[in-house]
Known about the structure:
Elements: H1 3-13, H2 19-40, E1 50-52, E2 56-58, E3 71-72, E4 90-93, E5 100-104, H3 109-112, E6 118-120, E7 125-127, E8 134-137, E9 143-146, E10 150-153, E11 156-159, H4 160-163, H5 166-191, H6 198-214, E12 218-220, E13 229-231, H7 246-264, H8 268-273, H9 276-284, H10 307-353, E14 361-365, H11 374-386, E15 396-403, H12 408-429, H13 443-459, E16 465-473, H14 476-488, E17 502-505, H15 522-561, H16 569-595, H17 601-635, H18 648-699, H19 704-710, H20 726-732, H21 740-757, H22 764-790, H23 800-807, H24 810-826, H25 835-860, H26 877-883, H27 893-901, H28 947-974, H29 998-1009, E18 1016-1020, E19 1023-1024, E20 1044-1047, H30 1050-1061, H31 1065-1068, H32 1072-1076, H33 1078-1087, H34 1097-1100, H35 1103-1112, H36 1122-1125, H37 1128-1137, H38 1147-1150, H39 1153-1162, H40 1172-1175, H41 1178-1186, H42 1199-1202, H43 1205-1218
Helix pairs in contact: 1-2, 5-16, 5-28, 6-18, 6-20, 7-10, 7-22, 10-24, 10-25, 12-13, 12-27, 13-27, 15-16, 15-17, 16-17, 17-18, 17-21, 17-23, 18-22, 21-22, 21-24, 24-25, 30-33, 33-35, 35-37, 37-39, 41-43
Domain Ubiquitin-like: 983-1048
Signal peptide: 1-16
Transmembrane segments: 169-190, 536-560, 566-585, 606-632, 668-686, 698-717, 744-761, 768-786, 806-825, 837-860
Amino acid sequence: MLRVPLLWLVPTLASGKHGKVWRKDAIESATAEAVKMVDKLQGACGVSAVDLPGSGFVEPESMSARCWVEQYTNCSMSYTQISCPDECPMVAPSPNFPCIFNCVTPEECAEYSPGNARPDLNGKICEPCDLLGCRYCESRTKCRTCFKGFVLENDQCIFFLDSNGISAAVMQTLLIIIVGLVLTVLVCYLRGKKSPHAEENLQNMINARRHRRLCKLHRWDRTSDKAPRMWRDLSVSMMTDDVSGVGVALYYKRTQLYKPAGLRQYLPTEEAANDELVSSMLEAFRESLTAPAVLYSPLVNCPSFTPELEVATLQKFASNSFWTLCVLFWALFVISLQQGRSCLNFFIEFDEMNVDSSDYALLLTGLPSSMTHEKQLKDMLQRQLSKHVKLEDNAIHGVSIAYDLSDFTLRSEIEDILANITRRKEEELGAFDNQGEAVKMDWERQKAIDKAKAEAWFNEGKLTSVGRAFVVFSKASTRDEVLTAYSKDAKVIQMPELPDVALESVDFDPVSVFWENQQNSEEHVIRASVKGALKVVLFFLTVNALIIIPYNVFVVGAFMSSGANLAGPSQTMAGLLLGIVNQQISAQVYNQAYFAGFKKKDRFDTFIFVLNTVVQFFNTWISLGVTAWAVIGKEGGRMSLFQPLADAGNIGLEAAIGDAFYAMHVPGVLYVNYIMGLVMGGVVPFTQHTLVGKIIYVWRSLPDCLLYALKIILPWSPDDLDRYPRFNAEKAIEAPEMGVAWDYSAFIVHMATAFLVTAVVSASVWKLFLALTCWCVFFHVWSRFMHLRVQTASSFNGHMLDTAAWLLWSLPMGCLAGSAFVWAVRAQMVPEMPLYFHIILLVLVMILAGALWVLSYYLVVRPDRRCDARASQSETVEEVMQHQVFSWYNCNPAYVLKQAYLKDHVPESHLVSDSEAILYRRGKEYLFIPGDKQHKITERFQDMWEFETHLEWLFEQLGNITVSRSASRRDLEKGPQEKYAPLRTEEAYLPAEPSWSIRDVREAICEATAIPPSQQRLLMGCEALNDGIQLDSLCVDSDELSLTLVRRSLDQAKLLEAVASGEKLAALLEAPEARSDKEVMMAVVQKDGLLLRFAQDSLKADEDVVFEAVRQNRVAMRFAAESLRAEMTFVARVVRQQGQALQFASEQLRRDPGLVRLAAEADFLALKFADPVLLADKHFMREILQSRHGCHALQFAAPALQRDKELQALQRAGAKHWQHSTMPLPDQKKGDAHRCRFGCCHMECLQC
C-alpha cells in the first residue's frame, strides 16, 4: 500500500511559507501525484486505492472497477468496500489470491470463481456454495442451474452416472456379492463337509499351502544333517550372501544410491523461501470462506516495490532456479557414473566370492540336430581338447544338450512323464499324507509305458538337438584353461564330425535357462519382442483412449469444473476401474515377455523392466497432466510454463498444482500403493482361492450351477466339481515370483516424476523430495520383506538387468534437464518464440540429456566388457552339486528323461536310480533331500512374518467357533443330558458332532462302554464303516444316524491291529484263524492282493475278498477260485477296474467279444490276453478299430490282419480322428491340448 510514502510527502509539501494556503494545494498536489503513481503501479503492487489521512480510500478514475477484467485490491481492504459497475455488480474473488477479483454478473460467479457459485445479492459478492455441481445457487439448499455433467433433481445437482442409478447399482451389486460370499462361507462352516471327496481335496489344499511355503526363499543344503532347509533371516546380507543370484545383490547395491540421492535433491523453493517476495506470495495463497480479504499478502512490501523491481526479482528467482538445477544435473551425472562403475566392480567381486554352477560351464554352439547322445559328445570333446590342453581323464564332467521342445503336444507329454516321476518320488518319501492321493497308481506299469514313449521319441527322431549344449567341467581352472586356449585358437574345439562348433562363456545358472525356448533364433526372439512391445503399447493407448481419457473428461472434469472433488459411488468405481486397468497392463507386460520366447531369464526380466518402465513413465505423465488439468479446472485461470515468471496469479496456480502432485504421491503412490499391492496381490488371492476351493471341493453346499459360476474366479481349477488335484491346488495359491524387475521400475519412475515437479513453484516440491528420501529407506526394507517372506523364490544371474536400469536412468536425467530448460525460458534466457518451438526445444533437450547419459555410461563404465571371474581352484563341481539342489543336468527336462529311461545315453558317473532322476522345480527341492532327513524339512516351517501363518490361524479359529456353536445349538435342542447316555444291549443314544469321523465315534463308545476301538465293528445297514468316514457325509436329511455295533473277538482284534501296523503279513497268515476270517483277509489283501493265495478256499471264492485283492493287484486274479474266474458277471466287474485281469479269466470268457471289449475300454493292453481266435476275427478287429479306443488295437491282431489294408486304413483314420482331441488332466493347466498319458487316443480313457 502507499500509506507510508504519502504520509512522508504531505508534511514536506505543507512546510511552505503560507501554511494554510499551501496546505490545501499540497494535499491536492499530493493526491494528484499519488494518482499518477497508482496508475503507474497498476496491477504490479496490488493497489487499486490510496489511503489518505482523514480522507479514507481514494479511487482514481483509471483504477475504478471494471467488468470481466482481473483487478487487484489492497489486501487490507474488505471485498465489501469494492463497488462494481451495475452491469456486473458481483465481486468474484480469485481462487489463487484473495487480493485479486473480477466484477461479474450473478450467473457468472461459478465461472470466474470456481466454488463460489452463490451470489450474495446484498453484499454484492460471490460466496461458496455447498451444493455439489451447482452452477448457480439461489440459497444454501436450492440450486437453479447445474454444471455440465450434472442433472438438476429436486433443487439438487446429481452426477449423471449417479442420477440414472448406474454407479449405485454397480456398488450395490458388488456389496451383495461380497455379503453373499461371507454368508456362504459361514453357512458352509456350519454345515461342514459335503463333497464325496472332501477329505482328499482338503488334504490336497493343505499340501498346497505347504508347497506355497516351500516355494519361498530358503537355504537348501543336501549335506547338512541339522537343517537341510532353513529360512533366510530378514537381517541376511543381501549384498554379500548369494541369496538368489548376483542380480538380487546388485539390486540392493543400487538402492544404496537412492538414499543419499534423495537428500541431495534440494529444491529451488528452499532458496526462494528466503526471498521475501516469493515467500509472501506463497504464504498469500490461502482459501477464504469469508467475505473480507485475507490480511497476508505479498503487497505488504509496496512502499519500496516498483514494477521494475518485481520483474527483476522474479527473473532472478527463475535464473537461480535454472543454475541450481544445472548444478544438480551435473553433480548427479558424475555421482551416477561413479555408482554405475561401482556396481560393475561389485558384480566382479561378488562373482569371485561366490562359486556357482556357471563357473564350471561353457556353452557349445553349432552342433548338428542329430547330436542327441550326451555320452558320445562328452567323449568326443574330451579327446579333442586333450590334444591342445593338458586335461585329466575326467576333466569334462558331463554335457547337457538342449532339445527342440517347440511342439506343444510333445512338451506336454514330457511334462506328464516328469510329473509321474515326481509323484512317485513323493509317494516313496511319504512327503504328503496318503489322504491327498486320489487313486493309487500301478507305478511299475506306468514306468513301462513312460519308458516306451521316451525311447520312441529319441529313436524316431522326435526329440532333436537345437545345436546348443552346456559343457560342464570338473574343475573351474580346467574350464578357464579351455576358454583361454579357445580365445587364442578357435580350432582347438573343431572336429571333422563337428566343423561348425564354437564356445561361449556362461554367466548364468541352469535355473535361469528357459530350456523350452532354446530352439528359438535371435531373429525370432527380436521379432516376438518387438511384436509384444507393440501389443502392450497398443493396449495401453486403447485403454487410455477408451477408459482413462473419457473417464477424466466426463467424470473428473465434471467435478473439477464445478470446484468439487470426485466423491460418492463414482469415486469408488473409479478406484476399482483404475486398479483393474493397471493390473491388466501389468499382466499384458508379463504375458508378452513370456510369449517372446527368451532363452535366458535375465533377458526375460530385462524385457519386463524396460517395457514396464516406459509404460509406467508415460502413465505417470498422463496422471500428472490430468492432475494439473483438474486443478486448473477447479481453481480457474491459465498457466504456461513457457512465459516469464511475473504473474502472481500464475504462481498461485502453480502452488496449487504442486500441492496436488504432493498429495497424489504422499502417502498414496509412495506408500499406500505398495501396502495395497501386498493386500490385493497376496492376502486377497490367497484368502479368496482358499475359501473358494473349500466352498467348491470340500463343503459343496451350493447348487452345482452356482459352483460352476464360482469356479471362474478359481485359477487352475479342474473341469469337474468332485476332485481337486494337488497340482491344481498348488498352482491356485502359488505366490508370485520375486519382482526385482518391477521394483527397478519404481525407482526410475518415481525419480523421474520428482524431477519433473521441479518445473513449478511450490513449497510442496521440497517436501516431495523429503518424502522420496524416506521412501527409499522404506522401500529397501519393504523389498527385503517381500523377497524373503512373501514372493516365490527366483534366480537373477548376470548384470544385464542392472545395466538396463542404469541405461534407463536417462529418463530421470532427461526430466531434470527438461526442468532446467523450463526455468531458462522463464528467466528469459531463451529468445522469445512461439509455444510449439518451446515444446520442440524441450523435447530435444530431454532427448539429448538422455543420450548424453547413455553415451557417457558406455564410455566410462563399459558394461559390455567381459568380466569372467575365476572361481575357487580347489572346489570341484561335484562338491558344488552336493550343496546346491539344482545342476546343469536336473534342470534340463530331456536330460532327466534320459537319466530315468535311456541310461545308455548318460555317462556312467551320472547314472542314478529311477526314483532319483527328478526334474528340479521351485517348491520341490525337498525331493532331493535324503529320506532320513525329510522330517527336518518341516522344522520351523512357519514364520511370524508370513501373513499365511496368521490367516491359517484365523481360519482354524473360525472353524472351531462355528463347529462349537453348531454343537451347542443341537445340545440345546436335545435338552440337558449326560455327556454320554448309558449304552444298552438293544439300543443306545450317543450325542456326536457332525465333524466327527468314525474313529471319533469309536473313541466315544470306548469311553462309555470300555469296549476298545479295535474290537468295534460299526455297520450302517450291511456296509462296514471305515475310520476316515465323516458323520456329516452319512447324515443327509436328519440330525440322527442309526449304526449297528458288532463286537469283535479279542483274537480277531489283535490280528487286525497287526495288519494295520504293517507287520509281516505273510507270517500273520500262518495262523488258520487269520486265513479263515473274512474281515482279516479283506484288510490283508487291501495292502497286498497277492496274499490271496494264503486264504481258505471258501474266501478265494468270496466275491468281495477277491475283488479287493484284484483291485490292489491284478495278478491276484490267478489265485481266485475257478468258479469265480468262469463267472461272467464277476469277471466283467473285475475287468472294469483292472482290464489286464482278463489274463486269468477262463478260456471261454477270453473268447467272449463283449467281455474283451469291456476289458479293452479299461486298458487297451488287455487285448494281448484275448483268445487268438478272437484276434484273428476280422469282424471283431474292425469293431475294435472303429471304436473310440481302438487306434492301437491292430498291433495285437493276428499277423495276417496286421497287413490287411482295410484295417490299416481304419487304424490311420482312427488315429487322425482323435489326434487333436483335448483332455485336461489333473496336473495340467486348463485348456492345454495333449493326448492320453497311457497311449490311448480317446477322450474317456478310464486310466486318466
